[in-house]
Amino acid sequence: METLGTPSLGPARTDAYLRRLGAVRPARPSEGALRALQLCHLRAVPFENLAIHLGEELALTADAAYDKIVTAGRGGICYELNAGFAALLSSLGHRVELLQARVYGKDGALGVPYDHLALRVDGRWLADVGFGDHSAYPLDLEASGEQEDPGGAFRLRPVDGVDGDVDVERNGVPVYRLEARPRVLADFRTGAWWHRTSPESGFTRGPVCSRLTGDGGRITLRDHTLITTSAGGDRTEKELTADEEVRAVYRAEFGIVLDRLPVPLHPRD
């Protein structure tokens, strides 16, 4: 199967992707299979922006996303993670569409167009493995009330005057505005360029690597700060003073081996 902007993987690459996730091949596409795959992806593949701070290219193709996630054992930002996940889901028989979103900033203002890439799956489910700390499971685009998730209470609130567009809210706070019109991966190149070059982008201010843990918590390495959050919300921080300590965390917690540490492109003030 191949859907708009979502090329399928061959059988061998599909199996390799599933091994990367530690997931079994579903017997058929279903809501349960989608939920299990999203959770596996969030636990196995980190959200990370290291390429920006290592001077690596950010190629927006499905093949590049696969090579980085599966062959190289890395993670990525939303464009890469959700592009890879879309190809996997399509290969497993799901109908997948790429959607663009604008992320709400701390000041409540919307970000640039093509700020974020998310997925509409089988016409009903909002799947997203590229937003870092977010929902553990896909959200129901047809539900009007709150949706309880390990990541919080989510609500999809229709945007006034715009048919099909929704604001995704978490615990009552708008997270991003999702546009209903399907896109192709190439449409996101401008957003990706902005995020990897602009001093105003949070991605250029320092390296971050984060994933969901098996017990429902989260582990994050931000610059030299190791942040551990439990499923109950308890948070601890540890400053790593030696570069080898940082490399050891990348290896042990994220499976990433680095010859050199990433250097902030536009350091935080």
Task: List low-pLDDT spans.
Answer: none
Helix count, per DSSP?
7
Largest beta sheet: what is the strand line-up? 5-4-3-2-9-8-7-6
Biggest beta sheet attributes: 8 strands, antiparallel
Percentage of helical residues?
Answer: 25-40%
Rounded radius of gyration (Å) = 18 Å
Decide which structural class fits the backbone: alpha+beta
Note the gap between the termini: 48 Å
The portion of residues forming beta strands comes to 15-25%
Query: Overall 3D geometry?
Result: globular
Q: Helices and strands, in N-to-C order?
A: HHEHHHEEEEEEEEHEEEEH
Q: How would you sum up this structure, described in words?
A:
The structure is a single chain. With 269 residues, the chain is α+β, with helices and mostly antiparallel strands. The protein contains seven helices and 13 strands. Strands 5-4-3-2-9-8-7-6 form an eight-stranded antiparallel beta sheet, covered by helices on one side. It is globular and about 50 Å long. The mean pLDDT is 94.
